[in-house]
What does this fold into?
Amino acid sequence: MNHLTLTERMRILAEGTKYDSCNQSAVCHSFTPDGRCIQLYKTLLTNSCSGECTYCPNRCQRDATRTSLEPFEIAKITWSFYRKNAVEGLFLSSGIIGDAERTTERQLEVVKLLRGQGFAGYIHVRVMPGTPKYLLEEIADYANKFGVNAETTSSLNYSEICPNFDYSNDVLERLKWTRDLIKKKRREVRYGERIVGSNDTQFVVGAVFEPDRDLIRTVNKFMDRYALRRPYFMSFEPVPNTPLQNAIPSPKWRENRLYQVSYLLKDYSLKSSDFEVIFDEHGFLVNDDPKMRLAYAHPEYFPVDINAVEREELLMVPGIGPVSASRIMQSRPIMSEQELARMGVVISRARPFIEINGCKQTNLVSFLEAN
Ligand code: SF4
It folds into this structure.
């Protein structure tokens, strides 16, 4: 480990976060409580892990270069990126250093150090499965966001890919504690103080055979039960010298379609059962816009009159999102597609599903398309 330069260690540990956040670079994204997407410096404390997760490049039995960063080094690097405005904060995860308790203590060292130095940036901590409650409580005192990865949808699946942990106790129980801690923190927050973000978790898509139907049901359940707002999805890719090295990679589009469905669950108040009509016979999404497929699966709902329907019905129209739906409600009566376009409606997508004052609009482009 000692022969590696700081830059080499940083690179290895950023790559090691592959299954902890959205990509393998040293920068990842997170969402603030007001929905803003921000860039964070992303690293592991160490890629030495005592775990044996079957998909993971950091699993203990794999032959790989192992390294770590000291808490003071992570604090220093974070400050340096932050001062240059390259990032707005830190995303910190780790391989398991012996057990969850020891690992979380090290993570806490980093965040305490940063806050002790007056760091006001964003801190997102990916906590370990099985982290003790007292340490979660401490993390909540310093972090903007924290949570444990669920990885999959059931105890059975979890035992297949993460044999060292227990889904019900090490994951679900921690998601519950995190929900309660966030609630408590938000009750206590005073004006101008840091607001703790919502519960946080990630799924590895395709490491076990679980249809999208199960993933979407689980996300919906977590939103209801654990106040999850935005799940992260990471496509499984086989890693050499792991038990899943010959498994089939999950296509990137599947991850993207799952994100789209998760937005429909969160922002459009849909339920997992609403998507039953768009799965294939095995319970998987196809590579097509889920909202468009929902609309085509329900011809009885359309066309809707832009000036007559409730906001929920507007939201079901492809090309109309929460912001444009609100603008339409505030600006009625709407007289033309041009007005809708100015409000952010994607007319080419919405046109087959809308009427304006009882009339379907036809302009030169659609006339030419139709003829
Ligand atoms: S606990 Fe599992 S997923 Fe996390 S670093 Fe270790 S082997 Fe990888």
